């Protein structure tokens, strides 16, 4: 909660004891919270504003200053207790990544006096998610775009350094925050200032902080989802994941390539198509978003490597981080004559690339879905269709070869 509200902090369970064995039972871990005065918690929660609900009625998001709460039903026994254990593990995984300034901060837990459900206290990002800012970000120069991209890949690299995979990496899970001038809360701005900001065509994102969030699916590399079940946002899912393979750091890199593309387009990938079985087939066949005109060639080359069909040919997060650091850091640390010809050419590509608008459709297809979900088809069905298609192509190829042989003989 906000630093000025020291009393509020008494109702948060911090992460210092998160790894203790006696905390294995999720309810045992939070048991002491129920002894806190319900009246005091009620007073605390009255200061919070409900931002919205998601996943049916299971998820509640509240705002207070620069922090937010996630409410989740941990359940009592049975399936609910299993959900609790998995959620607890996901928060432990989140804690492992907090050394990075590019991962949203996670403070601890509290409990709702109304629902008696436990809530996670995290930093609040006042600029919303990356997807909601695309139309403004696209109008910034490449220096600003590369700085934002660097923060994103830096956070992803920290996750991979911890031997974890995000597993649900997309533009809705990247948050933006900008500190208010003079420490004033944006809620205290005049109506005139709010209207002026609303009418601005572009906004400087150079000083905007970027955070990776929603590590709810973040899991150890050896973990995997239920057999045949596909969960996620189709445009950001690597073809091997759609086909039922295990998540790997390379599948996160594929998702990152779609975010790279958004920096050039200003719209989410495949926003003009239905996000269904047919799009999944297209991705598995090699379908990718079209390259936007005036994108620096070095950027295109890296993006294509990241979305390569073969996960073994994709660069690691560390390799991508190093490349982007070269583009934005080396030119400032060295004299221009000391930079290699190749790097100099790359830097000049970014400098000379015009900031233009694309002609892509900004209105999404009615069946486009950018919310993570369990898909209405399985990887088994997808593989069966692709294998059948492959057999048909082989038969056609054999028939053509037979015709060629007969023609030669005649």
TrEMBL record:
State the Gene3D superfamilies in the record. Transferase(Phosphotransferase) domain 1 (1.10.510.10)
Residues forming the Protein kinase domain are 1-328
Query: What SUPFAM superfamilies does this protein map onto?
Result: Protein kinase-like (PK-like)
Region feature Disordered, mapped onto this chain: 176-203
Q: Which ranges are annotated Basic and acidic residues under compositional bias?
A: 176-201
Top-rank taxon of the source lineage equals Eukaryota
Which molecular function GO terms apply here?
A: ATP binding; protein serine/threonine kinase activity
Entry protein name: Kinase-like domain-containing protein
Q: Which organism is it from?
A: Rhizophagus irregularis (strain DAOM 181602 / DAOM 197198 / MUCL 43194)
């Amino acid at each position: 909660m906000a630093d000025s509200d020291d009393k509020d902090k008494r109702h948060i369970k911090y992460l210092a004891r998160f790894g203790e064995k006696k905390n294995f039972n999720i309810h045992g871990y939070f048991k002491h919270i129920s002894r806190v005065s319900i009246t005091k918690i009620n007073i605390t929660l009255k200061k919070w504003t409900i931002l919205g609900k998601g996943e049916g009625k299971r998820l509640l998001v509240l705002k207070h200053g620069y922090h937010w709460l996630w409410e989740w039903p941990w359940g009592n026994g049975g399936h609910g207790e299993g959900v609790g254990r998995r959620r607890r593990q996901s928060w432990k995984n989140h804690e492992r990544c907090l050394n990075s300034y590019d991962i949203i901060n996670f403070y601890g837990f509290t409990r709702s006096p109304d629902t008696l459900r436990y809530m996670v206290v995290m930093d609040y990002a006042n600029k919303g998610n990356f997807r909601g800012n695309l139309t403004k970000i696209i109008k910034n120069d490449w220096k600003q775009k590369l700085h934002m991209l660097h923060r994103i890949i830096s956070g992803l690299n920290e996750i991979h350094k911890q031997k974890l995979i995000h597993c649900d990496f997309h533009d809705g899970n990247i948050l933006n925050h900008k500190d208010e001038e003079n420490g004033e809360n944006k809620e205290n701005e005049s109506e005139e200032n709010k209207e002026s900001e609303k009418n601005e065509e572009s906004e400087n994102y150079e000083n905007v902080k970027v955070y990776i969030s929603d590590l709810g699916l973040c899991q150890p590399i050896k973990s995997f989802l239920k057999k045949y079940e596909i969960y996620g946002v189709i445009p950001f899912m690597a073809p091997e994941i759609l086909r039922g393979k295990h998540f790997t750091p390379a599948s996160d890199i594929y998702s990152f390539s779609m975010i790279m593309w958004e920096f050039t387009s200003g719209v989410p990938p495949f926003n003009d198509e239905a996000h269904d079985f047919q799009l999944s087939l297209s991705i598995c066949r090699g379908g990718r978003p079209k390259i936007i005109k005036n994108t620096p060639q070095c950027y295109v080359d890296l993006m294509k490597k990241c979305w390569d069909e073969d996960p073994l040919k994709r660069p690691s997060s560390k390799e991508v981080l190093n490349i982007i650091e070269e583009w934005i850091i080396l030119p400032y640390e060295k004299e221009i004559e000391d930079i290699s010809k190749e790097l100099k050419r790359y830097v000049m590509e970014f400098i000379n690339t015009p900031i233009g608008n694309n002609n892509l459709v900004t209105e999404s297809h009615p069946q486009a879905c950018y919310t993570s979900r369990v898909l209405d088809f399985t990887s088994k069905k997808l593989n069966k269709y692709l294998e059948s298609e492959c057999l048909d192509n082989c038969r056609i190829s054999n028939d053509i070869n037979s015709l060629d042989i007969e023609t030669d003989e005649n």
